[in-house]
Write a structure and sequence with these properties.
The protein is built from three helices and four strands. By secondary structure, the protein is an alpha+beta fold. A four-stranded antiparallel beta sheet has the order 2-3-1-4, with helices on one face. A hairpin with a 2-residue loop joins strand 2 and strand 3.
Length: about 110
């Protein structure tokens, strides 16, 4: 399992995350509203409101998931960080695997 961190323009997170969940690229996306990002871009320092998105996906599909996020993201160079957690509740990891599998196994009730 991998945890992905991504920032997006304030208010743009819900639709972005919903599409990723619907396409089974991520199991879940938590939107932390109203973070403030200060960064240098194209020679200027910016100070912008953004939303932080925390997502979980499969390790074996990480490259494809990152590529899909980048393709759908409105920024030219979005922040996309993948982190391998040291420990995960086994039941939660199983749920993530089931939700991001190409087809949902029958009898899956953890939604």
């Amino acid at each position: 399992m991998r945890v992905l961190l991504c920032t997006i323009g304030a208010g743009d997170g819900p639709g972005f995350v919903r599409g990723l969940v619907e396409d089974r690229l991520i199991a879940c996306g938590n939107i932390v509203a109203s973070v403030r990002s200060v960064y240098r871009w194209q020679g200027a320092v910016h100070d912008d409101p953004e939303d932080l998105i925390v997502m979980e996906t499969r390790s074996d599909d990480i490259d494809a998931t990152i590529a899909a996020i980048q393709e759908r993201h409105p920024y030219d160079v979005p922040k996309i960080l993948a982190i391998a957690p040291d420990a995960v509740l086994p039941a939660y990891a199983s749920w993530v695997m089931a939700q991001t599998a190409p087809s949902r196994p029958s009898g899956s009730n953890a939604e």
